Amino acid sequence: MEQTNPIIEKIRTLLSGKQFFALQKYLESLNAADIAEYLEELLEEEALTSEELLCCFRLLPKDQATETFADLDPQLQSQLINGFSDRELSALLDDLFLDDTVDLIEELPANMVKRILQNVDSGTRAAINQVLNYPEDSAGSIMTTEYVELQPGMTVAQAFDRIRRTGVDKETIYICYIVGPTRKLLGLVTVRELLLAHPEKVLRDMMETHVISVSTLDDREDVANRFARYGFNALPVGDKEHRLVGIVTVDDAMDVLQEEATEDMEKMAAITPSEHPYLRAKTLEIWKQRIPWLLLLMVSATFTGMIISGFEQALAAQAALIAFIPMLMDTGGNCGSQASVTVIRGMSLGEIALRDVGKVLWKELRISLLCGGVLAAAAFVKILLVDGWLMGNPSITIGVAAVVCSTLTLTVILAKLVGSSLPMLAKRLGFDPAVMASPFITTIVDALSLLLYFQIAALLLGL
Amino acid sequence: MEQTNPIIEKIRTLLSGKQFFALQKYLESLNAADIAEYLEELLEEEALTSEELLCCFRLLPKDQATETFADLDPQLQSQLINGFSDRELSALLDDLFLDDTVDLIEELPANMVKRILQNVDSGTRAAINQVLNYPEDSAGSIMTTEYVELQPGMTVAQAFDRIRRTGVDKETIYICYIVGPTRKLLGLVTVRELLLAHPEKVLRDMMETHVISVSTLDDREDVANRFARYGFNALPVGDKEHRLVGIVTVDDAMDVLQEEATEDMEKMAAITPSEHPYLRAKTLEIWKQRIPWLLLLMVSATFTGMIISGFEQALAAQAALIAFIPMLMDTGGNCGSQASVTVIRGMSLGEIALRDVGKVLWKELRISLLCGGVLAAAAFVKILLVDGWLMGNPSITIGVAAVVCSTLTLTVILAKLVGSSLPMLAKRLGFDPAVMASPFITTIVDALSLLLYFQIAALLLGL
Fold first, then answer.
1. Could you point out which of A134, A418, B233, B263 has its C-alpha 20 to 30 Å from the C-alpha of B436?
2. In chain B, domain spans
3. What is the ipTM of this complex?
4. Which tens digit of pLDDT belongs to each residue from A401-426?
5. Which residues have C-beta within 8 Å of that of residue B190, sequence separation ≥ 6?
6. Is any Cβ of chain A less than 8 angstroms from the Cβ of B191?
7. For B341, which of A196, A269, A391 is closest by C-beta distance?
8. Nearest to B214 by CA among B239, B188, B190
């Protein structure tokens, strides 16, 4: 069943044969993100010692080594740092982009953080401390301070000079930001525009002044959604006084969108989001993500049980009703989760705002009437034909079918309204709407539908 | 409750006051994606006639008009095209990026497609037809043929000349592709490298030759995942003979990731994915996305009902067992959906491959033993203390608690194994794994857990 990766096999063979020159040539042909993954897999399979990891790493050309390092797991990064001399460490930190250095520091133990801060220059140290101070899910925490900054009085030729002089260290050079004396963002120019412009043209006269920017404290998901909306490659980040403090680049925005979608799916399935990919996460870690919600939801099912217990006598008299409980519960749950997932995703894509609550409820009401009607009609026919006539069960009467189908319609309406309104309510109260998905909606709708079921049965069948 | 958008209000006021000059100045300060959304909202609220839409559009500067057009709904795009003269249409098509033109053509009725193809030059027409021929979810369908192409013998200065001459129409100029005489992709250079290199340097000597490329028929989600993995701004697309035919840019990849995540969530919640945002979709359209799955799932709940009917006599004798059915069903469903959502997301992120099925099942088995154990212990205590002692229900015996808790443990194990393996099986058979999420897993696990429940009850309580 298990297949091995031919590239990993090749690295393994070259390493064990000590063919370092061939290994170097081979690694050079690979992308840094791939090298990082292969090294991680080899270490995991214990086919690579710490010394060999360090050796592979030293075989890589400088740029590739830096990129590979940035893509490694924090655990492997600290293994490598432990093996590095101060000179090697300082050279690496010089080449790392600032946002990667910050990511690294956030994951490392305190003594290694100290060693890192000792090995960077004071300007970088100040920038690191600045970014580290922003809240976890803010734009500030994903921004970099390495961007190209130009002055409005510069000519195109001067701008190119500046880009050539300072561009090597910048995360992107293709969008350049023009700031005034108080560091206020005045506009931007792209390298495309600069290339097409006359060398003597002054930036002030050609810059785009209607710049969309974000603030350091904006939610990182909102920022990432703007990239998807506008198709930008970078967005400037301003502080409270609208001074330019950094930029967010599209690759980081893409990572945020992927992470947020994964987190939303996990929350929708009653899982606490995790940092690690599934196959790398320990069993206990995954268990910890799942068990609290399972316990909570199990205990809340007590109410459903109590409702059934309360009607035990009635159920004993009309045992045929019991068989329809799973169908009613499942259909209610499915209807509720359709509505809640639609609303949760719509809100996180920015398509549905809190002020749309009226529109959403009105829409769901109409949808649920349509769905409830069709489902009830189908169920009515099915119950009488299949469960009653075909199975020859005399206790399935028209009365029983009527009770089941009217409960079904009401359950569908209720489920859609609860499913669409609870995520919006959660957001209004400052909670994450994604938690209000299938599992919670199901538990609530279960209890409500059973109450309805027994009330309607009492009314129609006189239990 | 409903709030209005101040920007839309301003546009509405300027329009109704016929202050076209002020409106023009105001629109110029907005981003194209925003203008498109505001125009759509105004039309929807019937605060804008077709003529006024055309008038707004004509007020925009050329570039902004093109971008706004590309961001509009297909319905509004065709309204505008109907209002355009042939000259206006031809100017617009000249400015539109090729991939936007293709998107447009895919949505328009045949007579308008004809008019469009008549108004583009023959080269563009050929390129449109080429892209239109790729399958819907392929890399070819999201690529553009507008990229900068250089020859290996060019110097840096010559490369800049070429970029300046042809770059205006290209979707990105920052990554340039170097092709040989047979159009085979030889390497790439970035504008950053070109800017930092000596003008006389020859591209052959500086280009990156280890280029990661995709094929026209690759799945567009796999392609988009590579952007997330490698952090590229563009990826070259080759045909079967490895000739360069186009590029995919990061903004399109980001859209794909967003759409695919939304589609997966919808499928996980038993909804057929839709093209339109929720608030814009018609009630009947949303109903059509939801009702087939609800019907299918409702009918499959028949089996659960049949299982209960089969044990009706036994249930009448031990009525206390009925009250625990919802709890068992819900817990099973929750456990199954935790496992299935984890595996589905892992597969679509490329973290879990089909060959990992052994690892996944072994992991889920251990997790389910831990979860099942804890849940059963908690349920045992709760049933005896709360349901039995606190509620004073004499029919809740240790035997009943034992039946419930052993069923619970087995259900959890079963749910996790079914939940994690079915999505992988679906993928192996060529279906979309996302369909094998909560609703289906729940229906299957429901039936299995009820069968277990009654078998164990028969065994332990001698029903």
1. A418
2. 6-134, 142-268, 283-461
3. 0.78
4. 888 899 999 999 999 999 899 889 88
5. B174, B175, B176
6. yes
7. A269
8. B239
